[in-house]
Amino acid sequence: MSTTVSRNDAGGPAPGGAGRRRPSVRTVLVWSAVAVVGAVAWTVLALARGETVSALWILFAALSSYAIAYRFYARFIARRVLQVDDRRATPAERLHNGIDFDVTDRRVLFGHHFAAIAGAGPLVGPVLAAQMGYLPGTIWIIVGVIFAGAVQDMTVLFFSMRRNGKSLGQMVREEIGIVGGIAALIAVFAIMIIILAVLALIVVNALAESPWGVFSIALTIPIALFMGVYLRTLRPGRVLEATAIGVVLLLAAVIGGGLIDDTGLGEALTLSKETLVIALVVYGFVASVLPVWLLLTPRDYLSTFMKVGVIVLLAIGLLLARPVLQADAVSEFAREGTGPVFAGSLFPFVFITIACGALSGFHALISSGTTPKMVAKESQVRLIGYGGMLMESFVAISALIAAVVIDQGLYFAMNAPAGVTGGTAESAAAYVNGLGFDTTAQDLAAASAAIQEPSLVSRTGGAPTLAVGIAQILSDAFGSGMAAFWYHFAIMFEALFILTAVDAGTRVGRFMLQDTIGNVWKRFGDLAWRPGNIMASAAVVALWGYILYVGVTDPLGGVNQLFPLFGIANQLLAAIALTLVTVLLIKHGKAKYAWVTGIPLAWDLIVTMTASWQKVFSADPRVGYFAQRQRYADAQAAGELLAPAQDADQMGRIIYNSTLNGVLQAVFALLVLVVVVNAVVVIARALRARGPVPTTEEPAVPSSIVEPSGLFATAEEKRALAEQERLVGAGTRGHGTFTEEGPSR
Amino acid sequence: MTEGNATAVRSAVTRALRGVHWYLKELTGEARWDDYLRHCAEHGHEPMGRREFERRRADERERNPVSRCC
């Protein structure tokens, strides 16, 4: 995010826009300049056809739009819509216990929150959506984050903070109703399982038949174990030291992977997808029952550092390499909906393929629960909620750029399922030529040789494509000859934090299961009861492992079949979150501002319900799961084989998978509709009451701490901080949660 | 570059590095130990050992899982 963003405003100590001043000439000039840069970048992107366009225009369009949105729209939401009030103590201050309720420096909390929300999603979705050209994805990522995703994250964070950090499910139950609450609880759990399965599927696809990748990923486990033991016994608490050692070992593992290819070890690590599924399931189970200090915590440090490091590296690389866009602005697949990566037309499928980065319902689970218990000042929800999501959107934009600057023949050869490419360089080249892109079997072979992979054909899932893009950008930026290293570095970094997400998700799923079943079987809810832990972990792993297996063995391509389900599920969760915040705005008597969350909610419902409808009822067998089922069932009845199935067994599998996916799809949509219908009843009741109705908001308690609200303290805030220091005396503030050696506030 | 400038640059760089170090320590939770020591000093408690302290923090993390998004 731009550093100029928050320098000129503070969110204001008092609600209702107090402290409104005439903007200085400098402020007006700076923001006019930002607006002009944004307008020029958007114009270039919109009008350029058939010319060479630099990818940097996408970057400029994004950054200037984010800056303006943060400065004006997010401030409007904070002051007018939510009416944040810094005189009111946050739960972190009121309930401070140094454990989960802990007043945390806003910049540190921003880092925590960002690390929690940003994972592989924003890296993968945009890569897949690139089949429609660069423009639809760019527009949706930027417009979506500004008006939907960041708004959702910020408002959920705010309302959860006003309720002592209650979870999304709890708030739906208490503020909407018991029916909606139960539906939301089931939806959250089911959606989490799908998300874990699809994330694991991406790892499997990236590592299959890639000994280098398997080697470096496998080594992350002993490296993390070593760090865990180091932090537990050798040098307790020296996290930076341990992480530095870990990062060095990790890089060594990536380099070392390049040396094993032609050895016996290389052969032993050439694993099939089915083997990798078993390995991941076993790993997921073990990781979930092991103590966190041994594996999860150290791995989380590594993955956070890698995440930030790679994003910074990629941003620098883009500026140095200044790549040119290879994809069309809008491809013919956007118009016809016949693309091989995922089926369906631009509307609604671009908007669900790109979920994370534009609008991700999963964030609502983090914005309620963990983060709100640590916010120091109410006005900081703007920096943490809105700003954190803008940052994730920037990651998505970078991933999109990486996918649209690589050769488009290679892009389609990599992302079309093996059922259509035939799996060899020759057949894939022929297939891609048929789509209208230039490439030859030699080109494809050369591309895979350059990064030392056996083959790049049908390496679906987005991660390998992104890694190829990153390798190309970083090679151009920092000198050639390192492409293979960069590729495997990128694969390692993606797999690393997908595995961290899988570990953490399995554990959270396990807690949810134990908590829910604990209502009827008390013993099971006891988190310290070992057999309960093991049973719940096994159940969660079995659920995602099963769907992962279904995806991996799907003759139609697991990503092609499951990714839409993942995207829709994530955005259905967003629909639940946006429904909740819209209900809350109305209950708090702010119906005139309900459009702020109501419009993204309406859009999200239109998109997800259209997509769900098409996935369930479309007569086109490429889009509709049940039409697909019917087509293969008819063929089976007639004793025929339909491509890509090669035998009767595969025919049966396609029929079974299509049914399963279709049923899951329908159930998700119905659960969300239950929440929405329940919400409409509550809204109608609240509107009839004409004015605020009771909610579970905690009563206001005056705050005694002084903290800046934006990234940088304003002159006014610095004076207030100095005043506070003088009154209280240095060092006696709070419980030592603030470190005064910190950089100037 | 004048001497004054060089000193100014050096102190700016030092400040920036110190800031990064502070940030990383806070982000990873390493700084919790320093906070704890300061807290004990202010209230006149006898602090527990670091090993014990970190163990308790790990136990807390065991009970409060942090979700990671996709």
From TrEMBL, chain A:
The keyword Transport applies. InterPro entries: CstA (IPR051605), CstA_N (IPR003706). Keywords: Cell membrane, Membrane, Transmembrane, Transmembrane helix, Transport. This is Carbon starvation protein. One of its GO terms (cellular component) is plasma membrane. Belongs to the peptide transporter carbon starvation (CstA) (TC 2.A.114) family. The lineage of its organism: Bacteria, Bacillati, Actinomycetota, Actinomycetes, Geodermatophilales. It comes from the Bacteria. It is found in: Cell membrane. The keyword Cytoplasm does not apply. PANTHER family: INNER MEMBRANE PEPTIDE TRANSPORTER (PTHR30252), PYRUVATE_PROTON SYMPORTER BTST (PTHR30252:SF3).
Automatic annotation (TrEMBL), chain B:
Pfam families: Sel_put. Residues 48-70 are annotated as: Disordered. This is YbdD/YjiX family protein. It comes from Geodermatophilus obscurus.
